[in-house]
C-alpha cells in the first residue's frame, strides 16, 4: 500500500471532485464539506465511469408525500442506470448488503510531512507550506 | 437455509459477445431541421410553422420525464460539441461499433414523430423523411448499421407504398411499428400492413415506448415513470395477445415479430395463461388452429435489453429455455441511459451455443445477414 498525492487541498473545493489515475486505476476524489473521499471510477453494476455521475442528495420519504433531503450531496448517481452510491462508504442505496463500489483511504497531510516521504506524487508537486490530499493504494 | 449470492461478474468480463449483432441502436438528429432535405416544401413549411401534433397532448417533452438529461440519455454519450447522443456517428463507432466489434447494428429511430402524428399525412411524410435520413446519415456512411422502415399505421396507403419501396433494399432490415397504437395490432384494419411487411421479407419490430393518447395502463394514468415503465410491457403483452387471438399468424404464416426492449421473462407466463384459456374458450376463437404458445414460439423474437436481473442469476437460464434460446437476441439500446454493456449484462454464464445464438446467430438468420 503506497500513498499517492493527488491534489493540493484547495484544488478540490467542497462539492467538487477530481478524477485521477493511480497505477493505471481511475479514481474519483470527492470533497464533501471539507472531508475527502475516494472511489473507483467503475460502477459495480455494468462498469460505467461511476465518478463522472451526478452528485445528489439522499432523498427520503418517511411517508408518501413527505419528503426530506438527507445528507446533501453525499450520493453519487451512476451515469448509466442511475444506481446511487454513498460517496463516503461506496455503499449502494438499493442493495446496501450486497453491492459496494470500491473505496480508498484518503487523508490530508501537510506538505512538510510529505516532503520527508515516502510517497508518490506523480503529477502533483509538493510545497512544504501547503496541505495535500493523499490516497492510499 | 438458502442464501442468495449475487454473482458479480464485473471483474470477469464475458468475451462471447465479440462480433455481436446489436438489435437496438438509436440514431438521433442534431437538429429537427435535419429532416428538411427529405421533406417537400409543403411539409417543410408545415414542420416549421405548425409543427408536430402528437397524440399525447404535450410538445417537446415526454409524459414522464426521465432521470437522465436529454430525456433519458446515457450520461457519457454526449458528443463534445453538445449535440444530442446518437447524433454523432464517430462517437457511436467509438462507444459501440468499434469498441465491441459490432457486426451489425439495427437502427430504431425514435425520432420524427411519424407514428404518433395526428395529421397522418404529415406523419406519412415524416416517415419517408426519417427513412431517407437513416440512410443518408447512418447506413450509407456506415454499412454495419441497418435501417428500420418507419411507417404511419393510421395511413395505410402510404405505409404500404413505403414498405414496397424499401423491399429488397439491403439497407433496411425490418419495419418499425409502435406498440402503443389506437387499436391492438391484430385488429383487421392493420392486416394489410402486416401482410405487406411479411411479403417484403421484413420482420416487424415493436420497440417499446411511444404514446397512443390512451391512458398508458388499463387502470388509468400512472403517477411516476417508475410505474410507466412496466406499463410499456403491458402494451407489449396486449399486442402479443391480440396478434395471436385474431388469428393473424393463420392468415400470414410468414409474419415475424420482434419485441424490442419490452423484457421477456413475462412471455412464458403469458403463453401458459393463453393456453389455459384457449382450452376453455376455443369455441370463441375458432381461427386458432393451435395452442397460443405454439404461435408465440414460432413467430416472436425478443431482444434482451433492459436485461432481466433475477435475484438468483441462474434463473435467467430457465427463462431463456422456456422462450427458446433461438428466439432471444442481444441488444444494447445505445445511447440510452438504461443501455446494457454486452460484457456484463448477463450475470450468469450462458452455455457456449446459447451465447452464439443470442449474440449473433439468431439475428443473422432472422434478418438474413451474413
Ligand atoms: S453501470 Fe452503473 S448503474 Fe449500471
What are the defining features of this structure?
A: 137 residues; mainly beta; Rieske Iron-sulfur Protein; 3-stranded antiparallel β-sheet; 43% strand; B: 370 residues; alpha/beta; TIM Barrel; 12 helices; disordered N terminus; Metal_Hydrolase (chain B); lyase (chain B); Amidohydro-rel (chain B)
Helix/strand layout:
The complex is a heterodimer of chains A (137) and B (370).
Chain A lengths: L2 E6 L8 E6 L2 E8 L2 E6 L13 E7 L7 E10 L6 E3 L16 E2 L1 E5 H6 L14 E6 L1
Antiparallel strand pairs in A: 1-10, 2-3, 3-4, 4-8, 5-6, 6-7, 9-10
Chain B lengths: L20 E5 L15 H9 L19 H4 L16 H9 L6 E4 L12 H20 L5 E6 L5 H11 L5 E5 L14 H9 L4 E4 L17 H21 L2 H4 L5 E4 L5 H16 L10 H8 E4 L11 H9 L4 E2 L22 H15 L4
Parallel strand pairs in B: 1-2, 2-3, 3-4, 4-5, 5-6, 6-7, 7-8
Helix pairs in contact in B: 5-6
The site of FE2/S2 (inorganic) cluster has 9 residues of chain A, from loops.
Overview of this structure, please?
The complex is a heterodimer of chains A (137) and B (370). Chain A has 137 residues and is mainly β. Chain A has a single domain (9-116), classed as 3-layer Sandwich (Rieske Iron-sulfur Protein), CATH 2.102.10. Chain A has one helix at 111-116; strands spanning 3-8, 17-22, 25-32, 35-40, 54-60, 68-77, 84-86, 103-104, 106-110, 131-136. In chain A, strands 2-3-4-8 form a 4-stranded antiparallel β-sheet, with no helix packed on it. Chain A has a 3-stranded antiparallel β-sheet with strand order 1-10-9. In chain A, strands 5-6-7 form a 3-stranded antiparallel β-sheet, with no helix packed on it. Chain A is elongated and about 55 Å long. The longest helix of chain B is centred in the middle third of the chain and has 21 residues, at 225-245. Chain B is an alpha/beta fold and 370 residues long. Chain B has one domain (21-366): TIM Barrel, CATH 3.20.20.140. Chain B has 12 helices and 8 strands. Chains A and B meet through loops of A and loops of B. FE2/S2 (inorganic) cluster (FES) binds next to loops of chain A. Chain B: Keywords: Lyase.
Amino acid at each position: 500500500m503506497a500513498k499517492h498525492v493527488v491534489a493540493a487541498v484547495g484544488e478540490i473545493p467542497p462539492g467538487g471532485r477530481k478524477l485521477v489515475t493511480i497505477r493505471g486505476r481511475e479514481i474519483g476524489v470527492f470533497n464533501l464539506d471539507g472531508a475527502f473521499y475516494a472511489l473507483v471510477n467503475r460502477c459495480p453494476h455494468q462498469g460505467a465511469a461511476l465518478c463522472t455521475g451526478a452528485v445528489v442528495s439522499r432523498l427520503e420519504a418517511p411517508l408518501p408525500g413527505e419528503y426530506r433531503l438527507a445528507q446533501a450531496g453525499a450520493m453519487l448517481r451512476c451515469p448509466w442506470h442511475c444506481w446511487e452510491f454513498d460517496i463516503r462508504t461506496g455503499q449502494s442505496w438499493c442493495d446496501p448488503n450486497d453491492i459496494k463500489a470500491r473505496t480508498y483511504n484518503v487523508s490530508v497531510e501537510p506538505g512538510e510531512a510529505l516532503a520527508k516521504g515516502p510517497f508518490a506524487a506523480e503529477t502533483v508537486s509538493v510545497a512544504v507550506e501547503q496541505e495535500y490530499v493523499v490516497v492510499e493504494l | 437455509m438458502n442464501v442468495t449470492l449475487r454473482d458479480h461478474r464485473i471483474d470477469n468480463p464475458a468475451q462471447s459477445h465479440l462480433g455481436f449483432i446489436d438489435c437496438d441502436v438509436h440514431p438521433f438528429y442534431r437538429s429537427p431541421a435535419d429532416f428538411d432535405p427529405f421533406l417537400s416544401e409543403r411539409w417543410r413549411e408545415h414542420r416549421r410553422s405548425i409543427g408536430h401534433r402528437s397524440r399525447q397532448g404535450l410538445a417537446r417533452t415526454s409524459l414522464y420525464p426521465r432521470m437522465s438529461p436529454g430525456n433519458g440519455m446515457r450520461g457519457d454519450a454526449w458528443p463534445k460539441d453538445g449535440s444530442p447522443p446518437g447524433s454523432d456517428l464517430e462517437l457511436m463507432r467509438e462507444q459501440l461499433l468499434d469498441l465491441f466489434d459490432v457486426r451489425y447494428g439495427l437502427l430504431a429511430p425514435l425520432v420524427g414523430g411519424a407514428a404518433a402524428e395526428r395529421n397522418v399525412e404529415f406523419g406519412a411524410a415524416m416517415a419517408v423523411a426519417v427513412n431517407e435520413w437513416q440512410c443518408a446519415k447512418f447506413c450509407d456512411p456506415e454499412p454495419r448499421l441497418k435501417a428500420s422502415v418507419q411507417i404511419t399505421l393510421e395511413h395505410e396507403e402510404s405505409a404500404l407504398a413505403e414498405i414496397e419501396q424499401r423491399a429488397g433494399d439491403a439497407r433496411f432490415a425490418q419495419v418499425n411499428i409502435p406498440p402503443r397504437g389506437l387499436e391492438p395490432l391484430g385488429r383487421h384494419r392493420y392486416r394489410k400492413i402486416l401482410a405487406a411487411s411479411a411479403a417484403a421479407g421484413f420482420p416487424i419490430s415493436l420497440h417499446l415506448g411511444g404514446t397512443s393518447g390512451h391512458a398508458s395502463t388499463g387502470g388509468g394514468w400512472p403517477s411516476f415513470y417508475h410505474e410507466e415503465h412496466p406499463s410499456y410491457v403491458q402494451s407489449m403483452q396486449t399486442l402479443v395477445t391480440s396478434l395471436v387471438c385474431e388469428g393473424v399468424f393463420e392468415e400470414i404464416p410468414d409474419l415475424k415479430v420482434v419485441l424490442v426492449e419490452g423484457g421477456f421473462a413475462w412471455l412464458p407466463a403469458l403463453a401458459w395463461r393463453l393456453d389455459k384459456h384457449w382450452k376453455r374458450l376455443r369455441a370463441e376463437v375458432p381461427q386458432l388452429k393451435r395452442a397460443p404458445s405454439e404461435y408465440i414460439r414460432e413467430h416472436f423474437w425478443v431482444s434482451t435489453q433492459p436485461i432481466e436481473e433475477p435475484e438468483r442469476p441462474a434463473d435467467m437460464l430457465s427463462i431463456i429455455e422456456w422462450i427458446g434460446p433461438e428466439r432471444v437476441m442481444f441488444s444494447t439500446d445505445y445511447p440510452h441511459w438504461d443501455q446494457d454493456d454486452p460484457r456484463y449484462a448477463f450475470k450468469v454464464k450462458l452455455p457456449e451455443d446459447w451465447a452464439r445464438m443470442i449474440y449473433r446467430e439468431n439475428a443473422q438468420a432472422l434478418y438474413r445477414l451474413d
